[in-house]
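Lecture 7 notes: from sequence to structure.

We start with a single chain of 281 residues. Read the sequence below before looking at the structure.
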Amino acid sequence: MTKNIMAGKENCILVPTDFEEQSLITLSQCYNLARFTKSTIYLMHVFEKVEDKSNATQQLENLAKETREKSGQEVKTILTEGNPFVEINKAIENLNPVLVFIGLTSTFSAKGVLGQNAFRLVRESEAPVITIRGKVHRDGCKTILLPLDLTKETREKVGKAIEFAKYYGAKIQVLSVLNKSQEVYENKLLAYSNQVKRFIQEKGVECGNKTLRGKNIVEMINGYAKEVDADLIMIMSKAELNLKEYFIGTTAQQLIGTSEIPVLSIRPMVRKDTTAFATPF
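Now the structure, written as tokens:
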């Protein structure tokens, strides 16, 4: 079970790093949330060859010192040998962080945290994961984009979006996306979108909503995120994929793999029924 981002004085944020530019950009994006949640920042590096340990130790110590100075927060380090996916997942299980920050290159490389393990890590993490790909990001957050569908999982992220919005003083933009095969559900989705909008507004957060129809859901989300100048896209990730999804990729995987805007992925709770439509609150 994930922590409430504002709960507890034992909070921590986990930031795996390979010391490359994108992971350093990602690290800088965690400072504000670390301060707000009073979280210790755990810098983690996984090396795969024993001969890399000495150099990695020095790099990690230097980065930890710099991070303490810039963030003003307590910083701890984790240095371990092995497979990045396996070791990072172990750290998540042990630390139960409020958030994990992962930097992604413009394309998935074949190694390390930035490789094919990246989405698997997002999908299987018990903690919420923010993936950051673009080079330039606002210091803060003015607009949170909340794509919706009719599954029960998607409504779990509404409360998290409100939480983030209140911290940043941000607006939430609800986006309902439909492709041709989903038009039969349009009236339900529109009603649900309006219901979510009212709920968010009742919590004291500015909220707008929009419906888009088209062929490619990922392209619609990415395009609209740029249109509203979003700083964060919030999605639910799936813990398991069927064989077809492994080949074509889920919407979540495609979005994480293409968005230049940070994506916050939340793993849904285990449910027996994940498709029935009911009131979300």
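The CA atoms of residues 92 and 127 lie 7 Å apart. Keep this in mind for problem set 3.
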